[in-house]
Design brief:
By secondary structure, the protein is mainly α. The protein has 2 domains: about 1-45; about 50-150, Winged helix-like DNA-binding domain superfamily/Winged helix DNA-binding domain (Arc Repressor Mutant, subunit A), CATH 1.10.10. It contains 7 helices and 3 strands; from the N terminus they run H-H-H-E-H-H-E-E-H-H. A 3-stranded antiparallel β-sheet has the order 1-3-2. A hairpin with a 2-residue loop joins strand 2 and strand 3 (about 105-115). Helix 2 crosses helix 6 (about 115-135) and helix 3 (about 50-65) packs across helix 6 (about 115-135). The longest helix is centred in the first third of the chain and has 26 residues, at about 20-45.
């Protein structure tokens, strides 16, 4: 049984048999898979009253460890979003009572974003369901296939120039 990309590739092979269409199959499938996965994860976030970007910020703060706090600048660095976009997102999260913001007492030009108790509970509840949802989305692959795919995608990302961001320094007490 073929997928939709097989159909597209067949059309291209008929129209341009002189070309190697292999890259189109890989990139097309990664793109389509990303859309399906994103849609599946958004449903879970919505069930928790969140949008994907809100979960990303809450999860970033949660992964930072106690005191679950980062500067706004660190959030910009880990999210690849502009400072204006992060500010708007933090405003929305603060309005929901999920994060608080305060001026860094050691650097008045810096703002500290802290996960509230409510935000901590929401992200912990959401991440557990998020992992269950990801398991469901990947159920077509056996565990060893998932590991193999993860390794291949890591190699691809590194080849495309992706690197892990430096872990932000913990804020001053």
């Amino acid at each position: 049984m073929g997928d939709s990309v097989d159909m597209y590739l067949g059309q291209w092979r008929a129209e341009r048999p002189d070309l190697d269409h292999t890259p189109m199959g890989v990139v097309g499938r990664i793109s389509r898979a990303a859309r399906f996965l994103e849609r599946g994860m958004q449903d879970n976030f919505a069930a928790h009253g969140l949008r994907g970007y809100e979960f990303d910020i809450l999860a970033t703060l949660r992964r930072a460890g106690h005191p679950y706090q980062l500067t706004a600048g660190d959030l910009v660095g880990t999210s690849m979003k502009t400072s204006g976009a992060i500010t708007n997102r933090i405003d929305r999260l603060a309005a929901k009572g999920l994060v608080s913001r305060e001026t860094d007492p050691t650097n008045r030009r810096s703002v500290l974003i802290t996960l509230t108790e409510h935000g901590h509970q929401v992200v912990d509840d959401t991440v557990a369901d998020h992992l269950d949802r990801e398991r469901q989305l990947l159920a077509a692959l056996r565990p060893e296939e998932q590991e193999q795919l993860a390794g291949l995608l890591r190699t691809l990302l590194l080849g495309l120039g992706d690197t892990a961001p430096e872990r932000p320094a913990p804020p001053s007490p």
